[in-house]
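[audit] Reproducing an earlier prediction to check determinism. Same input, same settings, fresh worker. If the tokens differ from the archived copy the diff job will pick it up downstream; this log only records the rerun itself.
[audit] input (217 residues):
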Amino acid sequence: MGAERVLVKGHPAGLFVLFFTEMWERFSYYGMRALLVNFLVSTIAQHGWGWTNSEAMKLYGLYTGMVFLTPLFGGIIADRLTGYKKSIMVGAIIMTLGHISMAMEGFNKNFFLAGLILIVLGNGLFKPNISSMVGKLYPDKGGKKDAGYTIFYMGINGGAFLGMMLCGYIGEKIGWHYGFGLAGIFMFLGMLQFYFAQRIFGKIGIRQKKKAQFRKN
């Protein structure tokens, strides 16, 4: 039995790798997002940027819009160039660097803006392809596949809830940098977990090169 066919509770073991990878990524994403506007509108005395609410919401809207746009390109890149696994891994690395950059905002404001850009780019590679990987674990359509996606989305909801609660609390009560840093730590853990468990997927998620077909004369 190949590694990609190992079952846990009737589901491919790879599902639970993707479950936790996505959960920690959603923890970091929603945790950072819970802080973003509050940090921008907080006064300089509160270690924020002192922006108006209108200015903060414009940046928030631009950021959120790009987060939903870039996966269109990330899916194309994975299909035509990299494959799902490599795109997920590269995206996770880029997002980890983005969160670390945001946590270093105290040194230079450019770190914060660079971090947002990195998170947007990493999300584009990560988000569409991890969902596609779940589908690839189930060769046949049916109840098992639907149940697999249900389990997977439980990880999304759990990570989002924990991220908003913990990062939001630490960011506002202890320090913005600590909140951004906590989001980065869990993104890093999700990346490590996926990296060391990649073998369990076998050939799933690897782009197969098409063999050239020659016509016989």
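[audit] rerun output stored. Observation attached for the diff report: The chain has one domain: 25-43+53-139+153-199.
[audit] end
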